[in-house]
Fold each of these.
Amino acid sequence: MGRRYLNNSHLVDTVIGGWALTTLFRVQTGQPQIVQPNNDPTNGAGQSQGIRVGDPNSTNLPNPGKGAVCATQTRTVNTWFNPCAFTTPNPATGPNDLAAYGGYGRSVVYGPGYNRVDLSLLKKFTIYREMALDIRADLFNALNTPAYGQPNATIGNTFGQITSTRFGGSGTAGETPDARVAQLSARFHF
């Protein structure tokens, strides 16, 4: 406000001058997940983890069998990580068989990261004395960046696949829009 445009015209200054643009940029790395077998090889003794046999981001891995289909490409919705990088621990042979618990600390995979740009354009129009009108336009997820959910980390048919969006849940997460959303608002002060 206070600047004049187009040869000091009051009408043009009222319409064009005094606008404010705000930007909010959010970024987050992928969340860690522990790979788990689809059965309990410890026979109910505790929580087991998958055994890492290769780099989860590599596409050049031998197929360990057990129904796994190796990925030809990673970091996609269908194969976020290579399912052939993990195998199920062998069943326990006795109460002290630690091999059935899997590879603790080595079976962590990271889901997709998240970034989002929100924009707001706003202006205050003074009408008369204390009366004013605030106009605001908001654009949430301005670049329409997809927000993928976590990949399936349980060894099985959809192992390594992303089947949902980050904000597809219920409560606050379900109310947060994933796609681009525009909002226009006005507030009158008197």
Amino acid sequence: MIVLFSGPMKVSGRWRRSIEPDPDGGSVLVLDQTRLPHEIRWLALADLDAAARAIGDMTIRGAPLIGAVAAWGVALALRADPSDAGLARACAVLAATRPTAINLRWALDAMWAQVAALPLDERAAAAARAAARICDGDVAMCEAIGRHGAALIRGIAVTIQRPVRVLTHCNAGWLATVDWGTALAPIYQAHEAGIAVHVWVDETRPRNQGMLTAWELAQHGVPHTVIVDNAGGHLMQRGLVDLCIVGTDRTTRNGDVCNKIGTYLKALAAHDNGVPFYAAVPSPSIDWTVGDPVDIPIEERTGDEVRFVTGRDPTGAVAQIELVPPGIAVANPAFDVTPRRLVTGLITERGVATASRAGLAGLFPEYQGAGS
């Protein structure tokens, strides 16, 4: 039996969500992920431009959280301008911030559907209610993903009679969603149920989101070890990984998984060594319009993310260090696609599906004819 609790994360001694309405009612609060793990700083997003900036510069990141912040961005925008032009502008500005994560488009479409037909004087309040529902829905989906994934971990634990060693990539936890996380939700729920787990945490260059995963796991007391990205294959060869669980920014209707750059290499190593490889996929991350992964736009981010790294210097101050000298060319594709043949299964809020069109359609029959 999985033990349910308030959520996986306490910050400054109390349970928190990664996005919360400010008690003053004029903004929403988000945790500045660019400061973690060195500093905890909450930011108030008070208008459309602040929400768009937070998404674009990765103050917040993670496909589900991007969708939640976009939803609130629309709500904040309509407080200032509830007109048709204001709604259209808000959706256009937010849609342009990050091209790969499909949750962004999903959330904007949902907000448009909720408010476009309403009288102007009702739009702002209705948008705030709709954004809150999107956040609550994300929590429920991630909690369900956690239950289904924890059952997989339990099955392995019964067989091996020792801690289950899970390898992750990027951060797909509480910070990347509204609560619980996707890939980390099964780990949190297994840990709460008394199942011994140990997490291998990929550092995930160039933005080092693995440090966010390590911060989360440390906050919750889950045993873990940070490794360099290239160590995963070695650990699998040595039999030190029992399964891999990653998140997704967009999954095709056929089961191909687009995730943070480097995920594909982990899947190849897992396939070569017989290690189960799962992706945690909330339904808003499924793009039912895309069957061929070549149609997924892959975001090319600034080379400065590769040129520089942020950390603490010997004095304890947080500093930015240059790694790549000026004049050297740098490329920074932010995502790659893991073909469905390398994916053992997709952990969704409705259960675990095979990475195939039939598998997803079996859990989501309402989309069976989508994109055909």
